[in-house]
Amino acid sequence: MCKGPKSKECGIWKYDLLNETYLSFEVNITQNVPSLKVKIIMSSNGKVMFRLQSNKLCDHLYLRPLLESFFNVTQDCIIQKGYYVFAADIENIAQTYYGGSFIYGNLTFKSVFNNNDCNLSCGLISVNLYPKKSK
């Protein structure tokens, strides 16, 4: 976890890491959260390798469906107040999307989700990706 840019938090998060790769999340969203912005940065050894930034998360082709799979989101892109639980195999996701062919090593992912009022989430995840073994 990290500190987001706003002084107010609109989500209370709990994370559990199992077997160093499987991450479970519990979040209590304390108010309805409209107009999310997102910033995701992937870096290796302090060098930025990938950056995604959007002031309108729900206009993003890939991120809106992801957001809707985790939270109760209205058509106007408001995340509804409530308690949510989900899990992900971080290493598997990173390996599937980023690693093995041309991106590997010690990678750090920083993500910030916030709006003008509060921080929904600020996370910092480090993973080790290895080259795919040839068959």
What do the pLDDT scores average to? 86
Strand order of the largest sheet: 4-3-6-7
Major β-sheet profile: 4 strands, antiparallel
Q: How many helices?
A: 2
- The amount of beta strand, in percent, is over 45%
H/E element string? EEEEHEHEE
Please report the total strand number as a whole number: 7
Shape: globular
Secondary-structure arrangement, i.e. CATH architecture: Sandwich
Structural class: mainly beta
How big is the Rg?
Answer: 16 Å
What's the CATH C level?
Mainly Beta
How much helical structure, as a percent, in the residues? 10-25%
Number of domains: 1
Low-confidence blocks of residues? none
Distance between the termini: 38 Å
CATH fold-level name: Immunoglobulin-like
SSE blueprint:
Elements: E1 11-18, E2 22-29, E3 37-44, E4 47-54, H1 63-70, E5 82-89, H2 90-97, E6 105-114, E7 119-129
Antiparallel strand pairs: 1-2, 2-5, 3-4, 3-6, 6-7
Give a written overview of the molecule:
It is a single chain. This protein has helices at 63-70, 90-97, and strands at 11-18, 22-29, 37-44, 47-54, 82-89, 105-114, 119-129. The chain has 135 residues and is mainly β. It has one domain: Sandwich (Immunoglobulin-like). The strands form two sheets. The protein has a four-stranded antiparallel sheet with strand order 4-3-6-7, with helices on one face. Strands 1-2-5 form a three-stranded antiparallel sheet. It is globular. The model has no long low-confidence stretch (mean pLDDT 86).
What are the salient characteristics of this protein?
mainly beta, 3-stranded antiparallel β-sheet, 7 strands, 4-stranded antiparallel β-sheet, 135 residues, Immunoglobulin-like, 12% helix, single chain
